[in-house]
Design goal:
The protein has 10 helices and 2 strands; from the N terminus they run H-H-H-H-H-H-H-E-E-H-H-H. The chain has 272 residues and is mainly alpha-helical. Strand 1 and strand 2 form a beta hairpin. The radius of gyration is 23 Å and the shape is globular.
Length: 272
């Protein structure tokens, strides 16, 4: 169904502009919002078309400044879906705009896994093998062929992933406008997104205590018992505490400084 949808001249122009803008994805990368700024830039060609007032455009840009991170090579597929959702939001006043970010969060994890495996784990290795054999012979074609072997598939897939994502999003709007399926998809995407965030927190937040108690001649290591009762309990509690500070309006920079202070103080007094 997606492939049968024909784009008009203006939509094809939009796809080209979005493709070019997608190369800004890594602009302003940071550990607070990661690729959000670049994603917003990539969404601008659609936002300026679909929304006519500066206030609406500003709201859409701010909406896409939520944290985002995925493989750059396939990010256009998510951009395409988001553009289709923004089009629906601009035409339908009753559209729930929170669905847009819910779907984005649900898609960025799977596309990151697919993109990393395909591009970094497969295409890059093949391109390196092609280029390295010539480079070892002193031929400058080694570097050239390496770049071509990697970037030709990259650019082709990057463009058509955006087209596919946009068509898929349009068909999704058409198929779910009256069935209520979109809300179910949004809820499912939210669940998947929370699972991804939970997995990231468990793997990236490292917090252990070195606190020990001596009873008689026996030394009890608190961390050892915590791991037996509830593995990764301290990282979970600290993540929830930081989330609570964000909900109260604390800035990410402030939370980062608090984390540094907790680490230094905890290490100094022997708690961490």
């Amino acid at each position: 169904m997606t492939n049968k949808l024909k784009l008009d001249k203006e939509e094809k122009k939009l796809m080209r502009e979005a493709f070019i803008s997608s190369f800004a994805l890594e602009f302003g990368y940071n550990y607070e919002r990661q690729q959000a700024l670049g994603f917003s830039i990539g969404m601008w060609p659609a936002i300026k078309r679909f929304y006519k007032t500066k206030e609406e455009q500003a709201d859409a840009l701010v909406r896409h400044m939520a944290i985002f991170n995925t493989t750059p090579h396939l990010s256009t597929a998510i951009t395409g879906v988001a553009m289709a959702l923004e089009k629906e939001a601009s035409e339908n006043p009753e559209f729930d705009k929170s669905i847009i970010n819910n779907v984005k969060v649900g898609l960025m994890g799977p596309f990151a896994g697919i993109g990393d495996s395909f591009f970094w784990g497969t295409i890059r290795i093949i391109a390196t093998g092609i280029g390295l054999s010539l480079a070892q012979q002193g031929s400058p074609l080694g570097a050239i062929l390496f770049l071509l072997a990697f970037n030709i598939p990259h650019l082709v897939l990057k463009y058509y992933a955006g087209v596919f994502g946009y068509k898929f999003g349009l068909n999704l709007m058409s198929a779910t406008s009256e069935s209520g399926l979109l809300n179910k998809i949004s809820r499912s995407a939210t669940i998947v997104g929370l699972m991804v965030i939970g997995g990231m927190s468990a793997s990236m937040v490292n917090l252990k205590t070195s606190l020990e108690f001596t009873l008689g001649e026996t030394v009890f290591t608190l961390q050892q018992y915590l791991d037996q009762i509830f593995p990764l309990l301290l990282p979970l509690l600290y993540t929830l505490a930081m989330f609570g500070l964000l909900k109260k309006g604390y800035k990410s920079t402030t939370i980062l400084l608090i984390t540094i202070a907790v680490g230094l103080l905890g290490s100094w007094v022997g708690l961490l």
